[in-house]
Structure formats: structure tokens, C-alpha cells
Amino acid sequence: MSESPTTPAAGIRPPSRRIVSPEPRRRRLRPVHGLVGVAALLAAWFGWQALRDDPAVGWRTAQVDTGTVRVSIAATGKLSALSTVEVGSQVSGQVLAVEVDFNDAVQAGQVIARIDPANFRSRVAQVEADLASALANLDAARANHGEAVAAQRNAEAAHARAQSILARQLISQADFDSAVAARDQAQARVASAQAAIQVAQSQVAQRRAAVESARLDLEYTVLRAPVDGVVLSRQVEPGQTVAASFQTPVLFTIAEDLRQMQIELTVDESDVGQIRVGQAVRFTVDAFPGRDFEGEVRQVRLAASEASTVITYPVIVDVDNADLALLPGMTASAEVLVSEREGVLRVPNAALRFRPPGAAATAEPAPSGPPDAAAIARFREQAQRQVDELADRVGLDPGERERLGEAMAQVRQQMMAQARAGNLPPSEEARRRRSAEATAAALQPLRADLDAQRRARLDAELALLAASRRASVHVLRGGAPVEVPVRIGLADASHSQVLDGLAEGDAVLVGVERGG
What we know:
Layout: H1 22-53, E1 57-63, E2 65-81, E3 84-88, E4 93-98, E5 105-106, E6 111-115, H2 118-167, H3 173-220, E7 222-224, E8 229-234, E9 241-242, E10 250-255, E11 260-268, H4 269-272, E12 280-285, E13 293-300, E14 305-307, E15 310-320, E16 331-348, H5 349-353, H6 373-394, H7 398-421, H8 428-442, H9 444-449, H10 452-466, E17 469-477, E18 480-491, E19 495-500, E20 507-514
Antiparallel strand pairs: 1-20, 2-11, 2-16, 3-10, 4-6, 4-9, 5-8, 6-7, 8-10, 11-15, 12-13, 12-16, 13-15, 14-15, 16-19, 17-18, 18-19
């Protein structure tokens, strides 16, 4: 029986065709994403409920207290003397003696090494002989000049007689011409003798200069300390030949008084703007673990350096080393005290980072509409506290305090008027910038009347107020965490200054504790 060519043979399946369509698969994935989000929210909610219902779970809290907030910039550098002098030799020769060694204290003018002076002494004798010869030539030139002057006088007298006799026609014209020629020759000899004197005088000057140079070279064979100090390095030994033909070799390095030293710190460009002359510096060295040394910023140098696209600036710190414990070349790990506030309200930084499990971090909403009475009272209380603290830190007298209060009240009225009118910027950063600009403008007349020191303090305080930021913490109230917005000012590694939002003694959440 024949089979149809279109019918597959028995036991053989025809190849199947699978049509893959990505569109239905994408449609199936969308509900999955939604389910994942719902599951995450449910997990957070159940976790939060379990945390609330678990009697073995508690909160770790910290107290808002009054203390010190200190901001510093960390940097490293090397200790060195205030002035280090490299002593070399200006002449070449063999070193006969070395009078000092490492760590020896020397005084200015003290002999520290000697170079063989034999060649230089012979040169001095030679140039002194040349000077004597030049002086003799000068004497001879002066004698010749005197002889020429005498001959000139004789020739001029003969010319005068010949001229008078010629008028009476007692001599011939030829004799008269001979007298004229003799006079002119005598004058020329006088001029030549005068030039010879000048040449001899220049030769004498050259010989004297050569003598001075030779004597200086002879003096340079004795090396002396240029300053009072300590010998840090000695790079020469007796018998060694010093060659100073093209470049002065450095034989000794002398550091001046090591009781006063300096550190050249390397500060990153992001931090150098906060460093000012006179700021306190605290540093340690590996040679004395556990001991803190102190210094003061003397200079912020403009000579920037770049390494691997990182820009740094050198900052020079003066260090008192009365006990000579610090040595040149030691590595110093320093902290530059940028700002310090004592007796301020502060909160642990852990409270600013902590969020209760299951609670979403919420940002403070931008103010909309006019503020209520409580907000106005809080705003006024905060402003008055800022005025009092600012006056204390700047050091204002009673009259200046009154002017400060009036200026700040003016700024407060402007900001409150803008708040009532709903004209405040929507972002916290923009509101802070507008407040800082208004404060700076209002305080400009008072700032102009302050001295330089108090003006700098005022500028620093205003910069701190302008840099304050909004944050939130969670406070335990009624056994449950409540999110509280706060304003943060100065911040260090462990605490942040609280400008508004908390009171001393408030318990802020910093973590979760689980019982056994």
C-alpha cells in the first residue's frame, strides 16, 4: 500500500514550530514587579509590628547634652628646622681636617673644616709680586711724565725766544720752524707719558684685584659655620678631594635653633579653604606615642602641587620644641582646629543616621502658607538665642549687641513676611542661602565698625550659620519613636551642634536592642 508523500511515516514526529513572542512575557513581568513591591512593603510592616510586639526588643537611646563640638582637618607633614643652611666649599683642594661631627652644636664663625692652602698661598705670593712689578712700572711712567713735562717747558721757552727774535728778523724762518716743531714734540711726549701713567695705574688695579681674589681663596680654605645651629649632616672626610669647578659641593648641613621648628603639612584643596593663620594645631609623632604636641598655623602657601590629579597645598605650622624632643625629619600626624564651640547643645551623630526598622526616612516638607503661632514663637526664640551666642563669640560691647539685635530683628521680619506671603523658596538650601544673604547685608554697617580680629570672628560665625542644615532624629515619646526635625550647625566626628528642634535631656534613638 502506498503512502501519501504528505503523510509522515509511522513513528516519526514532524518537526514542531515554536513561535516566541516577547510581548506576552513582558506583560507577565509587570504584575511580578508589583507583587515584589507589595511583598517588600508587607515585610517591612510585619517587621515593624513584630518589633513593636516583641517584648525582648528595646531601643538604644542617647541624651541630648551640652558640651564641646570641635571641627578639625587631618593632615600629615614632616618636621624641619625654621632655617637649614647647606655649607659648601668655594675652592677645590684636599681636605686637611674636619673639625665637627654629626649633632655638634656650632656657633657662627666657628671653623668646621680646612682645605690644603699650599697652592693658594703660592698664588698669593705670585700675584703680590705682580702687583709690586705693576707699582714699579707706575713709578717709571710717572718719572717719564715728569721728564716730558720738563722738556715741554724748555721747548716752549725756546719757541717764545725764537718768535721774538723772528720779529726783529735776527733768525731765519727755518730756525723758527724748528723751534715750533720742538715745542709740538714736547707736548706730544707729555701726552704719551700721561697715557703711560694711566696704563700703569690700570695694571696696578688689576694686580691688586688679583691679590684680593687670591687672598679670598686662601681664606676660603678655612670653612666656617655661617649660623648658630646643629650639624645635621657631614659629607666630607679628611683626605678627600673637593672639586668646586662647576658646582659648589655641599659638605655640611646646619640647622638653626631646633627649639623652634616647623611642619610643612600637605592639605587637600577641599579643606584648605577652612584653614586660617593662627589656628591651633595638635599633632603626634611615632617616636612618642600617646603624647600630643601643639603648634600654630603660620602660613598657607599658594604653591599648589598635583599628584594623581589630587591638588594639595603646603601649610606651615610653627612648633615650640623647648625640650628638643622633636627631631628634623619626623613625620607628624596633625589636626588643624578649624572651629570649636564650647557649651553648645549637641546630639550624637548616630541619632542623625538612625532610622527605626520599617520606618521610611521622611524629609521635612517645605513650608506652605503662613506659619502658625507656635512656629513664630519658636522662630523668635531661636533667633534671640542666635543673637546672644553670636554676640558672645564675637565679643561685642552693649552698644554693638543692640545694633546686632536690631539687624537680626530686621532679617527676621523680612523672612517672616516672606513666609506669610508664601514667597519662600521651595528648597531648604535656597531658603538658607536667602537668609544668609539678608543677614550679611543687614550686618554690613556693624561689620565695618569692628576691628580686624572681631570682623574675622563675625565672618566665621556667619559662615557657620549659613552652612547649617536641616535633618531629622527620632525621639522616644510614649514608648514609640517620633520623628523630629532639627537644624544642625557645627559637626565633628561624634556630635553635631543643635540649633533648633531639641532640648537638653531629650532621649534620641541611636539603635535597637534585643533581649536574650
